[in-house]
Write a structure and sequence with these properties.
alpha+beta, 18 strands, 4-stranded antiparallel β-sheet, 29% helix, 8 helices, 349 residues
């Protein structure tokens, strides 16, 4: 336990804003090497390793968390880069999101590193750019990791079992009309055409619903049109935020939207997918045996970039993430390590 708290203190003391994680990547790679990991891989600011008795004939579990952080907000009352332990709490930027998960998953991985006869391989991947959903994080190394069966994604959930996350898709829409003089019966007002589509986004209900999240949630968040008061606008642009639960793919939702609205629709990206793992999956069953509860997470993580079933869980509290004077309890880390090990023992041995 002591060496993992010290590792987290070193991570806190090493700035690692998204896309600037070089030093923490080096720190983590060095820690794994000194711990006896025979081969540590690195690509960009992503670090990964496999258990010593890796067998390509066995399925592989991905243990993933991120070592990048957001920038500290103005409300901090202490230096966010000086780790401080007070009354059983470790304060510092990234301590809760997601340093506690990084060190706890690392501890669990090293616990099994020399184990023989396991039913699964383990791949520990400590990755970059999670806070910005960047393309040089976990997504960039997936082809190098090989075939993966399922994942545990370390994020602060109080070690509860987040078995699903909504996906995110942002749409840019353009309603087109024809310009004319507002004083005469001229032109075709693009705003009125946009209103019809905006009303569809407000009222449409997708046929399938998630047991955890309900239906697809669509919100028009930005509208822009017109140049001056006496010109009928030829164009109206609007933006739609869509949160997609399990049961639909982003591509399915995009196709349904385009089928129903007249405006031109383009998706900024379809890569932030909804995620889900069956409640009867062995890793979920192992967590429930420890008294943990399942739920659908309202926040997004690197689960959105994984094309495999994934369970999000880790020490800490999501409500502390990105907050001033961020902290994690030392007991939370101890519990995280113990429960990761217990769950992996139930599944792997």
């Amino acid at each position: 336990m002591k060496r993992y708290i010290e590792l987290l203190e070193r991570l806190i003391g090493t700035p690692s804003y998204s896309r600037q994680e070089e030093q923490t990547a080096e720190l983590l790679a060095g820690f794994l090497s000194r711990a006896g990991v025979r081969e540590v891989h690195r690509s960009g600011n992503n670090v990964w390793a496999y258990n010593r008795e890796f067998d390509p004939q066995r399925p592989t579990i991905l243990l993933n968390s991120h070592h990048d952080t957001v920038k500290p907000n103005s409300g901090w009352s202490r230096d966010p880069f000086i780790p401080t332990i007070e009354e059983g709490r470790l304060y510092g930027l990234g301590s809760n999101d997601a340093g506690g998960s990084v060190v706890s998953l690392t501890a669990a991985f090293l616990h099994f590193y020399e184990a023989r006869g396991m039913k699964y391989n383990l791949c520990l991947a400590l990755t970059a750019e999670e806070e910005v959903s960047g393309q040089n994080g976990i997504e960039s190394i997936l082809p190098q990791l090989g075939e993966l069966d399922f994942a545990i994604v370390g994020e602060p959930t109080g070690m509860e079992l987040a078995i699903a996350e909504r996906g995110l898709m942002v749409l840019d829409c353009v309603a087109r009309g024809r310009a004319g003089h507002a004083a005469r019966d001229e032109g075709e007002n693009a705003i009125y055409k946009a209103i019809r589509d905006i009303e569809w986004f407000r009222t449409y209900r997708f046929p399938r619903e998630s047991a955890l999240f309900g239906g697809v949630k669509m919100s028009v968040t930005i509208v822009s049109a017109g140049t001056q008061h006496n010109v009928v606008p030829a164009e109206c642009r609007f933006t739609v935020d869509i949160r997609i639960p399990d049961g639909y793919t982003n591509e399915e939702v995009l196709a349904i939207v385009r089928e129903h609205v007249e405006s031109e629709v383009s998706a900024r990206s379809t890569r932030l997918r909804p995620s889900y793992i069956d409640p009867s999956h062995p890793i979920v069953t192992a967590g429930r045996a420890l008294g943990r509860h399942t739920y659908g997470s309202p926040t997004m993580s690197d689960q959105a970039l994984l094309p495999i079933p994934s369970l999000k869980m880790g020490p800490g509290d999501s409500a502390r993430s990105h907050s001033a004077d961020e902290f994690i309890g030392l007991d939370e880390i101890r519990t995280g390590i113990e429960q990761y090990i217990a769950m992996l023992t139930a599944v792997c041995l």
